[in-house]
Design a protein that fits this description.
Blueprint (H helix, E strand, L loop, with lengths): L1 H7 L4 E3 L6 E5 L3 H11 L8 E3 L3 H7 L5 H10 L4 E6 L6 H4 L4 E5 L4 H10 L3 E2 L14 H8 L5 E2 L12 E4 L5 E5 L5 H8 L3 E3 L2 E3 L23 E5 L4 H10 L7 E5 L11 E4 L4 H18 L3 E5 L8 H10 E4 L8
Parallel strand pairs: 1-7, 3-5, 4-8, 9-10, 12-15, 12-16, 13-14, 13-15
Antiparallel strand pairs: 1-2, 2-6, 3-6, 4-5, 8-9, 10-11
This protein binds threonylcarbamoyladenylate and magnesium ion (MG).
Threonylcarbamoyladenylate (TXA) binds next to strand 4, strand 5 and strand 9.
């Protein structure tokens, strides 16, 4: 495969995974990984995930392969779960942002698994987008953002999961979900047989449903070019009034809704999203890219339900938003 030669020579290759497209380099080659940071405009303080295609390679990257890691890997790998563990000496500083830990995952994408195996070294790969923008879920999205900046793309279809992996920290006494994803905290708690913490919230095996405290300050990330407002409304006129207060012309607005809530007739575009978290997640970035391409200046997304199954979607929407209504109120 040409991609193998390019990676061996220190090149950058965009690769498909089941979550989003990644921008890969040889994880053992500090110079190659540095190029990833340059191309993405990524702050050097943000570590990148190392992708493996065997447990043997995973073990080469860490100081100690723990019992927890063994359990989670045997249940969820290959799959959308990144394990944060103490790093080994083989991992260069640039990969871990100088920190003592490394994030590792085995992606479930046959082409990329084969590529990693043929390389014989693991691949450091963040999502293949310019820093803070929406992650690519199709090769076209990668080309739009990265053409001319990278050496090749390994082409495949759309990413079936469409949201980045769950990142779980196994280095402290209490296991902590650092980034929610398709694998939920309750799935992890169940496999480990111990409570799992979610930011400042302890999530136990039994807590499959329930309200969560809202994550404090909005840290804009995963963001489309247009301004995204995450809102709750029940009548079309109510939304019209909110948008009028914001000084936004309705024709310039795209609305993403998943329920049957009424929307103003004059809205520029209404996208009906699936009322199912897995299907919604698979489509979200694709729709945000579509809004960017069409040049919509304002995107209104309907608040999604406050239960754990929607956690990853709520997280991404909140981070993409310039403004969010509170959404941690239990339905009455
Ligand atoms: O699904 C995914 O994870 C995709 C595909 C390509 O695998 N990758 C991805 O990478 O989303 P990136 O760089 O866009 O996001 C990596 C996340 C960041 O939030 C980063 O801070 C966190 O993982 N991370 C990586 N290494 C870490 C570490 N050692 N400790 C804590 N967080 C880490
Ligand atoms: Mg990213």
């Amino acid at each position: 495969m040409r991609a193998v030669e390019l990676l061996r020579a220190g090149g950058l290759v965009a690769v498909p995974t089941e979550t989003v497209y990644g921008l890969a380099a040889n994880a053992f080659d500090a110079k190659a990984v540095m190029r990833i940071f340059e191309v993405k405009g990524r702050p050097a303080s943000n570590p990148v995930i190392v992708h493996v295609a065997s447990l043997e390679t995973a073990k080469q990257c860490v100081r100690k392969w723990s019992e927890r890691a063994e359990r989670l890997a045997s249940r969820f790998w290959p799959g959308p779960l990144t394990l944060v563990l103490g790093r080994s000496e083989r991992i260069p500083d640039v990969v871990t942002a100088g920190g003592p830990t490394v994030g590792i995952r085995w992606p479930a994408q046959p082409l990329t698994e084969q590529l990693i195996k043929m390389c014989g070294f693991p691949l450091a790969a963040p999502s293949a987008n310019i820093s803070s923008r929406v992650s690519p879920t199709r090769p076209e999205h990668v080309i739009a953002q990265m053409e001319g900046l990278i050496d090749a793309i390994l082409m495949a279809g759309p990413c079936p999961i469409g949201l980045e992996s769950t990142v779980v920290d196994l280095t402290s006494e209490v296991v902590k979900v650092l980034r929610p994803g398709a694998i939920g905290p309750q799935d992890i708690a169940e496999v480990l047989g111990e409570p799992v913490e979610l930011s400042d919230i302890a999530v136990r095996k039994e807590d499959v449903e329930g309200p969560l405290r809202s994550p404090g300050l909005l840290n804009r990330h995963y963001a489309p070019k247009g301004s995204l407002y995450l809102l709750r409304w029940s009548r079309a006129e109510e939304l019209e009034q909110r948008l009028a207060l914001l000084g936004v012309a309705l024709e310039k607005v795209v609305i993403l809704r998943h329920s049957g809530v009424p929307v103003p007739k004059q809205a520029g575009l209404v996208i009906q999203m699936p009322f199912d978290p897995l299907e919604y997640g698979a489509q979200l970035y694709e729709q945000l890219h579509r809004c960017d391409e069409a040049g919509f200046e304002v995107i209104v997304a309907e608040l999604v339900p406050a239960d754990l199954r929607w956690l990853a979607i709520r997280d991404r929407l909140r981070r993409a938003a310039v403004f969010a209504d509170e959404n941690d109120v239990r339905d009455t």
